[in-house]
Amino acid sequence: MGENEKTFNKIVEWLNEANVSTDPKAKVESIIKVQEIIINQHPHLLDAFLDDVLAFQSDRNMEVRRTVVGFIEESCKKDPAILPRVMDSLDLLLRDSAPQVQKRVVQAASQVYRGALMYIARTQPVPPQMDKAWGSLCTMKSEIVKLIDNDNDGIRTQSVKFLEGVVLLQTYPEADSMVRENDFNLEDIPLTLKIVRRRRLEEEASMIFNLLVKFHGEAHVSSVNLMTCMGSLTLIARMRPQFMGKVVTCLENLNKNLPPTLSKSQVNSVRKHLKLQLSNLLKQPSAVDYHGEITKLLSDLGCSSQEINKIMPKVDDKSRRSHKRTSAESASSLHKRPRLEALYRPEHVPEPKKSQPSKVSVDIPAEMTEKFISDRLNPETVCNIVLSALPQVPSQMPSQFAANYAPVQEPGSQTHIQYLAKLLMSHFSGGSVPRAMPRKSGKMVLTELPEDDVEDESISPPPPPAAPAAPAAVAAPEVVMPPPPPPVEELMDQDGDDLEGPVFNQRDTAGHLVVQREKLKELTPMTPLTRPLKQKARALKLAEITRPLSQESKTKMCTSAVKRILSADKTAVCGGVSSVRNKIIVTLACTYNSDIRSEILKFVLEDLQSRLDLELAISWLYEEYSLMQSFTRKPIFVAEEGSVGKRYVKLFCTLANHLADKPEREVLLKRLYLEAPSITEEATDILKELSCDETRCTVGLQLLQSLVIRRPPKQLTYLNALLEHTAHDSVEVRSNAMKCVLSLYDGRSDLRSIIEEYAIMYLGFLQLPVPPDVLFGRERGRPLKVDNWAEGPTKACLYLYLELLPHEHKLIHELTRVYVQTVPEVKRIILRLLDSPVRGMGMDSPDLLKLVEECPKGAETLVTRVIHILTDKTPPSTELVKRVRELYQSRVSDVRFLIPVLNGLTKREVIDSLPRLIKLNPIVVKEVFNRLLGTHSESLSHNSPLTPAELLVALHVLDTKKVELKMVIKATTLCFAEKQAYTQEVLAMVMQQLMEMNPLPTLLMRTVIQSLAAYPNLSGFVMNILQRLILKQVWTQRKVWEGFIKCCQRTKPQSFQVLLQLPAPQLQEVLETCPELRQPLLQHVQSFTENQRMHVPQSLMDVLTGTRHVVQDDYDSQVAEPMSPDGLTIDVREDNFPENSGTSEPLPPGMD
């Protein structure tokens, strides 16, 4: 029980997977698994899960529905009792829109029908629901019989196989029938069964067999259907010998008249298949009666006598069958019906005299007629027949005769003579049946005259005039010969009624019989063939007494007639026969010479607008197409003027060019292409040329898009033509083509892979050393070919790919594969064109994150560019920052990878990266600061790990052992250039923080000077900074002290108050460094009041007046001066500091 529950749960799981899955393959696999478990392992579960599997019959996918049909077939084979439950599903699937599903249903119906019939025959009583299901199954059988005329070749093939099975099921076998295992036939059906009657089934089988014979002889049957039907008929003949004669006759007719629509290779295949089937028939014991016909057919098909003897059945079997046939013929001859001549003789026609019973004719069997003809076939007779038929032989060999003609094997042999006799017998019997006449010698002679016209026995035929009288002693019985057959012309002209006796024609009158007697009197007496024949009176022939018209007159009269028909359009409309007139015009245009075609074409082109509305041009196209495909037979009197296919192409291209030249007829051009039966390569080229015209490309490209959807057989041709224009050099052509392709890409899932492959193919061209020829040409907008990867060819390979990238993100990996193998010029162009596609993909794209995470070797620049584009106007996402950080720490040590995601890093990470960042190109460093300061985008939302003040402070405290001071100076200069970020308040905050550091940063005073130059209003704050620097003994740091002096020099006279606060030695050093400050500073002090001057130390006044030299050693600080790098120079411009200066920078200390 546990195992059953496990199986039950497993089936439920598979069915649930099939229900929720969107992959058709997964659904099919699940249903097949369920079928395998239920049908082969646990049949008791079929009842529980049958409805669940049948629910998939409405699935959108064709393969799923076909799998359901297979499940129904196997279920009915396993348990026919479920037929009532599945009958509705089978009926619904038979009407499915997909031909593949219909074909599968017909294939399954053979097994279902057989199983149902066997179940009904063996089940008593028949359940009521099975009775109803049998009725539905018979209705389905009728529907399948109609499918033998379906347009789909495969459906017709399966229908033939189904009908073959029905015939075998509904007929009786014979003793020598071929027997198959588990065979079922009418003998297995009980006579007492009411639901199924033997007689009705047998009649239906006979009708279906006749339908198969008719289908086998159709002129337009395909080679596959023909060979399938041939095999079915052969199998029926082998298993049901009662049909053997009809099948052999059917195969004989096929050998004589093969369908004219078959190609040469198909004819060879059909003949080979026919040879195989005839060989199979010859092996059957039931075919002994037809060995002559079969061996003759095999000889015609190229079999040698040895091959035929090899497959011939044993002699004993053949003798036994011949004996049986002879007995049957003798028995049947006893039961021939009496002649009903007296019943059908008209009242006014006298009956034959009863005293002459010897004159009553007797029907001759076909074998006697054939023997009579074969015995009299000699070279002279054959030559006469051939000579009489020569005037009707065409000058050129008909194509059908040439296709079916096979060389005569063993000409002149007895077999060949018997074959000719049989043909002549069948030809003569079509008009009049030979009769038997008594002769004086008691033997029978043949004549084609009715019995009523035979003369009395006492009246002998008159002797020929030149023959001498024979002596009575040696007189022998007269040898009476039949008259020679009439010439072939007369046989073809006669309708077969004039020589038919009263037994066969009840409508004959006495006058008709008198005419026959007159004909009899004109006939030559029956004599041996050596006797000269009386020449018949020559018939009047109109062609011999009339003068033929000249070719010029014929052409002129024909052209005039056509012109009258063309000008009668209004008359035809008034008479209501417009459609008839159009049919006449179309027929004339298709079947007559080029002059007529030219006149009609001129008429159509004169006013193409109305003609297309009236369907004349379209009808002409369809008629030409029918001739081209041999759907319509061309009249034999029409001379060939080039290929029919060329005429269709010429007509289509003429109409298309005429419409394409006039923009106002674009609607008609669309109708022409959409309604035409076939669009040739030349017509497609016209459409391509129209699509290359910048002014009219929209029409051509939209037409190509419509043809892709509406012409599935040539879908790839039109799609390729459309894709070619996506690489056109013209922006107008390319943009319109791109719209059409993207519309197909988004709307047709079956075309997505094809479009993607085309885009990847063009992308792959970039790996070649030179651009391929496919990118150049007049139709591509690049008439001149170049040998290097210039911008034009490179962009042509990228247009379609970059347009598809936002729609299918997985394509980005193809770009990295190609990028690493391209030349530098191509790489630069790729990087420039990535902006829009990458933005369309978005930062959250899994494929983009995967690209960043993997970063193929050689594609680092590409990945960096992608990250830059993603973070240019929006802050980086957490996932992106995480992957870039991992990439930087594990594989790629290039600090440039961090630039796009700087705003996503922590404050510590950014500060640690600054030494490496400021070593980069100044342009890159500027971008780094723009991102940190938020000036790179117009977005209002900016979240930087560093504030502008923190960034500038961090630059001042960088370790000079890791980065050169020059680099730091350049970096701070870039910061000062961003006035939007570094306002007056920010700089004041920076100077405040720098001043509070110990030791003081080397670039402190440079920053102070630059801040003051940028914002002169900071002069008061700067003076305060300078005073506080005096308290921190700024002179102890040499570089800072030099900057202090430079600042005081530039800020005079505001700095005079600060200078007076310096100790005397430092003031003396300042004045020695800047002697130009001594006099202004002295004047400043002298301008003090007496009270103010008292606060100035005397030492300072001595320094100012120069009366005392202060020794520096007395004021040296006990603290060691911080060491600065030797040879340090700070690039500050040597300018006088103006009060309103905006961008001036100070020179480094010691260079003024």
UniProtKB/TrEMBL annotation:
Gene3D superfamilies assigned:
Leucine-rich Repeat Variant
Q: InterPro entries under this entry?
A: ARM-like (IPR011989), ARM-type_fold (IPR016024), Symplekin/Pta1 (IPR021850), Symplekin/Pta1_N (IPR032460), Symplekin_C (IPR022075)
Where in this chain does the record put each Symplekin C-terminal domain? Answer: 894-1074
Query: What compartments host this protein?
Result: Nucleus
Q: What is this protein called?
A: Symplekin
GO cellular component entries: mRNA cleavage and polyadenylation specificity factor complex
Any Pfam family hit: SYMPK_PTA1_N
PANTHER family xref list: SYMPLEKIN (PTHR15245:SF20), SYMPLEKIN-RELATED (PTHR15245)
Entry keyword Repeat = no
What keywords sit in the KW lines? Answer: mRNA processing, Nucleus
Which superkingdom does the taxonomy of this entry point to?
Eukaryota
Q: Which GO terms describe its biological process?
A: mRNA processing
Region Disordered: what ranges?
A: 312-361, 452-472, 1118-1152
* Domain Symplekin/Pta1 N-terminal as annotated: residue spans: 99-319
Which spans does this entry mark as compositional bias, Basic and acidic residues? 339-354
